[in-house]
Amino acid sequence: MSSSMLSSFSETLNASEAALRLLISILLGLPIALFHRYTLYGKSPILQHLFFSISGILICYWNYEHNTFHSAATLCITYLILKLFGGTSLSVFATFVFNMSYLLYGYYTTSTDDYDIKWTMPQCVLTLRLIGLAFNIFDGKKSEEKLSALQKQVALKEQPTFLEVAAFTYFPGSFLVGPQFSMKRYLDFVNGRLIDDSVKKDEIKLPDCVTPGITRILIGFIYVIMFQLGTLYIPDQYLLSTEFLKHNFLKRLLMIGFWGHVNLYKYVFCWLFSEGVCTTFGLTYNGRDKKNRPVWNGCENIQLLTFETATRFNYLILSFNINTNHWCAEYIYKRLKFLGSKLYSQFATLLFLAVWHGFHSGYYVCFFMEFIIMYAERDLTQILERNEKVQDLVKSHPEIRIAFAIFTFIYTFMFMGYSLVPFILLSYTRYHQVYSSIYYSGHIIYLSYPFVSILLKKFLIKRKPKKLE
What was the pLDDT predicted at 11? Predict the structure, then answer.
């Protein structure tokens, strides 16, 4: 597709050429997946590795041209580290430092004041993928007793070949925007160990991974439409306009909530497209349900029903960007047990996520907001659950439960948008202007909560009487 055609099409859709090229590239994975399913699936693993590597590199080159060098260089140097030191703590350390340093170098040399669609986008996906690979090889050298149940599932007993790592790197269904998955899942897929025999024998009609894959992609198009309409209704610049200030305080909060929620749709439809492609390949197979039907959620990155109806921030976080959150939980949070505190581990994990996103101050403010909001939500939930009167009142009055659910839905909707202001606007001058228009209300609420919680615990939690000696 020529640049002139892309340019005119992007103007019609009111989208950047880079964004349109990215979407087309993700969707190109669908015909590639169909070709693989009907001609290469179950064939020589080497042939499949070559197919995935070449397809992914060509798509990468169409998007980033000579900047394809960056992912190739990262792949080669990481493989060399793993070949020389694989299975040791040194290999994990060196892989982590090299990949994060290279990614931050990319951010430093390419970033602007806006959200950039450049070679650093697939590079940030690749960074997690290769660091995770180093951990999996490291875990494979440990004894079984020292591994968790999940570590046993993804640990690698043997060092992957260069071709296997290259195909894993450039897998056409996921290297642009994710989802993250383990090398073990990829190797099981290519070697025919992932999907059971009853699925593989179905040679006459379409494999049953195609229908759920295409369905996921079609749902993605619905979110494209909602994103386009939503951002036309409240574009980013509207929050910075004098017209926005004419609304009352509550309406401003609600509008920010709507704006933030709609802006997340650009991630949602990208993930739905890539997940649909991965499902069409058959990579997302996750066993069978109670009715013996195949389950295709092995690379699910968004749980739509939970995301759209969340009444707590925790539900939103658990339903959004699932694979990246899972990666951080396994390779950062759980590896920080030596800190001796879940709170410290969570803070360090969110700090890692902020650094992984880039240097914009908005990322750090956003993840700090997530940290203090989650602390307040967990603490307040525990206080209310420990108060018997509150629990009895809620259980005996269904209308109170309904009213509480509606209130918490609106509250979550508004303050999730509030939290996303710096993540989307990135620069201090812009997000400060928006926060000033609502008097930094969220910061005041959550930063003052530790002091408020002292009073809440005093009046709502009964202390057990001390036993007389």
Answer: 67
